[in-house]
């Protein structure tokens, strides 16, 4: 048995025994000595983002980048290990992950719903700039002494600057304050599309997104209200479902309607980015932060995907750790794509006809702006729907 096979087999064996019986075992941990980190956020325009992203990650051990494509800005997190005796008692309490007054959270959601229903793209962009300016001005929640931010760099112990956000530790106050995503209040309701693009392809992917921004400059203001696109570095792994090579994780959060048949503003651009990543660049989807279509053919993207299924079958023959959903995602069973009226709006299917979008709300199935293989739900303004549909039909025939 190879090392890789042993690791996977051991995982399943531990899972089975831990869940089905009491199993005594001894584990030895190797602890790392306490160290500190020095963090600075540096904002630049995004013209060279694709060229710089690889070298930046190699220069800084804990680097990441937050991208605001509509504002054509990128915020580089310069984050390095420093000796434990370096002066500084910094703390990271990320602002969007703190509790907030429930009424304020509800007002934010109501504002976004009104912007969506009225196609208020300018309002979306204003909201986005207010959010990102506030975060930038307040160092995203970094403080030099646990209370105040006085300037970069912020130096603090690893355990105080690695974890972020105190929302789950907030007071029990009958929902006077709450996490923004708490379902007990009228708070945020969103989708997340998260995927890994091979480092060698990242520059081209970023350039494609920038092309979309040039065509529709306000289309991505909505994601900037949720602090843009977070890009993190992921290294290659020998695990069966690990990354075959170094990659960049793209984490995108965006508005979702409580009504699954209601499209979002600039639905087509968000869908095209999703399809560019998954199908043009072969991105690997995050297993817990994606819509159904992101998992189409996913196991074929892993060179050892079939080996994983063999080990899974060998160590879980009764499928105790499987479900209908996991089997669909892994391609073992059909049913991942759910074709019905409006299915493309929630990412349950790839649209092939207008009914999969929302034709009654002026959203029709059309080719992508720069990636024609992507069929996306595009809004056609009412006063020229017929003309635009005729033109699109001619283009499709050509």
From TrEMBL:
<dbReference type="GO" id="GO:0003885">
    <property type="term" value="F:D-arabinono-1,4-lactone oxidase activity"/>
</dbReference>
<comment type="similarity">
    <text>Belongs to the oxygen-dependent FAD-linked oxidoreductase family.</text>
</comment>
<dbReference type="Pfam" id="PF22906">
    <property type="entry name" value="GULLO2-like_3rd"/>
</dbReference>
<dbReference type="GO" id="GO:0019853">
    <property type="term" value="P:L-ascorbic acid biosynthetic process"/>
</dbReference>
<comment type="pathway">
    <text>Cofactor biosynthesis; L-ascorbate biosynthesis.</text>
</comment>
<keyword id="KW-0560">Oxidoreductase</keyword>
<dbReference type="InterPro" id="IPR010030">
    <property type="entry name" value="GULO_Plant"/>
</dbReference>
<dbReference type="InterPro" id="IPR055154">
    <property type="entry name" value="GULLO2-like_C"/>
</dbReference>
<dbReference type="InterPro" id="IPR007173">
    <property type="entry name" value="ALO_C"/>
</dbReference>
<keyword id="KW-0060">Ascorbate biosynthesis</keyword>
<dbReference type="InterPro" id="IPR050432">
    <property type="entry name" value="FAD-linked_Oxidoreductases_BP"/>
</dbReference>
<dbReference type="GO" id="GO:0050105">
    <property type="term" value="F:L-gulonolactone oxidase activity"/>
</dbReference>
<feature type="domain" description="L-gulonolactone oxidase 2-like C-terminal">
    <location>
        <begin position="340"/>
        <end position="379"/>
    </location>
</feature>
<protein>
    <recommendedName>
        <fullName>L-gulonolactone oxidase</fullName>
        <ecNumber>1.1.3.8</ecNumber>
    </recommendedName>
</protein>
<feature type="domain" description="D-arabinono-1,4-lactone oxidase C-terminal">
    <location>
        <begin position="194"/>
        <end position="328"/>
    </location>
</feature>
<dbReference type="GO" id="GO:0016020">
    <property type="term" value="C:membrane"/>
</dbReference>
<dbReference type="Pfam" id="PF04030">
    <property type="entry name" value="ALO"/>
</dbReference>
């Amino acid at each position: 048995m190879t090392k890789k096979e042993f690791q996977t087999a051991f995982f399943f064996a531990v899972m089975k025994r831990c869940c089905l019986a009491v199993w005594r075992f001894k584990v030895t941990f190797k602890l790392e000595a306490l160290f500190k980190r020095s963090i600075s956020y540096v904002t630049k325009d995004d013209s060279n983002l694709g060229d710089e992203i690889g070298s930046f990650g190699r220069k800084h051990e804990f680097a990441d980048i937050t991208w605001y494509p509509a504002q054509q800005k990128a915020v580089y997190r310069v984050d390095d290990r420093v000796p434990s005796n370096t002066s500084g008692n910094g703390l990271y309490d990320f602002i969007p992950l703190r509790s907030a007054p429930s009424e304020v959270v509800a007002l934010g959601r109501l504002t976004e719903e009104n912007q969506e229903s009225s196609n208020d793209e300018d309002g979306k962009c204003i909201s986005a700039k207010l959010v990102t300016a506030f975060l930038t001005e307040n160092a995203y929640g970094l403080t030099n002494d646990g209370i105040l931010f006085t300037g970069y760099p912020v130096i603090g112990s690893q355990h105080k600057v690695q974890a972020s956000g105190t929302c789950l530790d907030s007071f029990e106050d009958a929902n006077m304050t709450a996490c923004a995503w708490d379902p007990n209040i009228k708070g945020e309701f969103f989708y997340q599309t998260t995927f890994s693009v091979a480092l060698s392809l990242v520059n081209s992917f970023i350039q494609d997104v920038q092309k979309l921004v040039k065509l529709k400059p306000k289309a991505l203001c909505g994601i900037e209200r949720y602090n843009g696109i977070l890009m993190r570095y992921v290294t290659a792994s020998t695990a069966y479902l690990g990354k075959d090579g170094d990659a960049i994780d793209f984490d995108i959060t965006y508005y979702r309607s409580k009504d699954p048949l209601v499209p979002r503003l600039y639905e087509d651009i968000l869908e095209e980015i999703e399809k560019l990543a998954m199908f043009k660049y072969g991105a690997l989807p995050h297993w817990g932060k994606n819509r159904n279509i992101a998992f189409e053919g996913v196991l074929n993207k892993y060179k050892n995907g079939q080996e994983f299924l063999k080990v899974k079958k060998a160590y879980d023959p009764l499928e105790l750790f499987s479900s209908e959903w996991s089997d669909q995602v892994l391609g073992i069973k059909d049913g991942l794509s759910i074709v019905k009226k409006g299915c493309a709006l929630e990412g349950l299917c790839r649209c092939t006809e207008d009914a999969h979008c929302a034709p009654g709300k002026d959203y029709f199935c059309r080719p992508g702006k720069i990636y024609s293989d992507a069929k996306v739900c595009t809004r056609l303004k009412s006063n020229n729907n017929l003309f635009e549909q005729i033109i699109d039909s001619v283009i499709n025939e050509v």
